[in-house]
Amino acid sequence: MKKLAARDFEQILQCAMPVFEGLLPEPYNSLILDLIFELSMWHAFAKLSLHTDTTLSKFQAVTVSLGKAMRAFVSRVCPFFDTKELPRETQSRQRRKAASAQNVPGGRAAPSEDDSSPKIKSFNVNTIKYHRLGDYVRMVRQTGTSDNSNTQTVAAEVRRQAVLDRIHRGIPVSSTRRRTRATPTTKTRRRHDIRVQFEEDQPLSATVFTDHHHMSIEQRYPQDIGEFLHANAGDPACKVCTCWSHRAAI
């Protein structure tokens, strides 16, 4: 979960609900699932490339619902769980403190017991990002949709211009690279085979029949959930996932 971009968290949010379902007892389970659903709904409205008065009104209502779900999470879930630093975070903090102590005149400071023990990490909503969530609807009305200032759009255009510049100067560009960068929609139209080949190794331990789901830790075969739902739109097995996806995209 380190060095992730915003698009990575976007993909995590899309498939987080079935992963978190049943991890904690009630009432924490329902509160967390409600929060994830509200976050997904809010994100779907925020990513729309075309808004109307109706969608903006719904966007405002979803923002209010998200605030209520977030406050419920802070007041009814967070106080009952003691969250602390990860071991690597504690070690990193100790290294930073030791490095800063060496630069101070007078020598190296003696380590204390508090330095070796992990610190309490509480959930903090007093951040500018959370504070600005309520301004999105107003900003969309004033300046347009969020894709106007999205860095993904700029990055895609920069890559496209780089490929066109290479073509203009006569520098060979591979057909695969040219196809995927100049026309990125071809990737979404291609149907993927999600089956793992027999000769490939994807270890999976024995599954307990009472478990809600069982996933392999192997990450060599990623599958985009949006492409999967689009490619299997008529499959009855995807009916539940498709319904949830439509609810999050309304």
UniProtKB/TrEMBL annotation:
Instruction: Write out the ranges of the annotated region (Disordered).
Output: 88-121
Lineage top rank: taxon = Eukaryota
What is this protein identified as?
Uncharacterized protein
Organism, as annotated: Dichomitus squalens
